[in-house]
């Protein structure tokens, strides 16, 4: 009976020992991130700022990239019929980058083509600068976040070796555990940097497409003004 009790206790202790590491490994994502130290606070702010800029710019650029074929057709029809006031009203009501460019060109009708082209080009540059607003911040975040995460890891390593020098004892568990925690900041910074870099390039590609479309439509507008009979 005594031997049975010992066997039951031994089996129970063995099961508890086997379960202990599994319980220790159970860690939520939030708990894991909080172990990264104070560096996680600026990293979280960078991530939040990057998301706000991306979605705000994404919807703004997407709105500017909408199909303007109806606008160009209406403007072309009004110009051919000689009704410039109607063409100006159409451009003004469109409230789009292309509409503002064509409106500036219509206001210059009667002047040399070079002057009209210059006016449209200047408005186009202003519209492009509006579309590119704050996109550069994503590029900055893509460069800063990984370096900031690495700084967190370096600070953690310095702290670990400082503790070792104070205690005078090198404990593998302490060193490996501390490095495990501090590497979280590096991983987080790298992930934020990669995502910000992807967002930065996505927005730039979208802006490039809008620029190409605006240039194409402005060339067609100039060609319309140069047609015989104008």
Provide structural commentary.
The protein is mainly alpha-helical and 230 residues long. It has helices at 2-25, 29-34, 40-64, 69-80, 84-94, 97-107, 113-131, 135-167, 172-225. Helix 4 (69-80) runs antiparallel to helix 5 and helix 6 runs antiparallel to helix 7 (113-131). The radius of gyration is 32 Å and the shape is rod-shaped. The model is unreliable at 1-8 and 14-24 (pLDDT under 50).
How are the SSEs ordered, and which strands pair?
Layout lengths: L1 H24 L3 H6 L5 H25 L4 H12 L3 H11 L2 H11 L5 H19 L3 H33 L4 H54 L5
Helix pairs in contact: 3-8, 3-9, 4-5, 5-6, 6-7, 6-9, 7-9, 8-9
Helix content: over 70%
Count of DSSP H/I helices:
9
Cα-atom Rg, whole angstroms? 32 Å
Strand and helix order: HHHHHHHHH
Total number of β-strand segments?
0
List keywords for this structure.
0% strand, 230 residues, mainly alpha, disordered N terminus, rod-shaped
Structure described in brief:
Helix content is 85%, strand content 0%. It has 9 helices and no strands.
């Amino acid at each position: 009976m005594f031997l049975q009790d010992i066997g039951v206790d031994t089996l129970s202790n063995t099961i508890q020992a086997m379960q202990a590491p599994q319980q220790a490994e159970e860690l939520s994502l939030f708990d894991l991130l909080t172990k990264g130290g104070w560096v996680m606070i600026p990293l979280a702010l960078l991530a939040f700022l990057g998301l706000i800029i991306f979605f705000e710019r994404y919807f703004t650029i997407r709105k500017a990239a909408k199909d303007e074929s109806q606008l160009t057709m209406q403007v072309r029809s009004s110009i051919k019929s000689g009704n410039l006031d109607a063409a100006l009203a159409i451009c003004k009501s469109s409230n789009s980058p292309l509409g503002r460019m064509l409106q500036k060109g219509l206001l210059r009708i009667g002047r040399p083509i070079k002057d009209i082209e210059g006016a449209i080009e200047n408005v186009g540059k202003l519209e492009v600068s509006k579309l590119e607003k704050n996109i550069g911040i994503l590029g900055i975040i893509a460069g800063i976040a990984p370096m900031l995460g690495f700084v967190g890891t370096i600070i953690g390593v310095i702290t670990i070796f400082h503790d070792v020098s104070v205690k005078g004892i090198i404990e593998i568990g302490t060193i490996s555990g501390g490095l495990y925690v501090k590497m979280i900041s590096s991983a987080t910074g790298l992930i934020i940097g990669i995502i910000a870099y992807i967002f930065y390039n996505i927005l730039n590609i979208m802006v490039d497409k809008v620029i190409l479309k605006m240039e194409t439509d402005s060339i067609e507008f100039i060609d319309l003004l140069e047609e015989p009979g104008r």
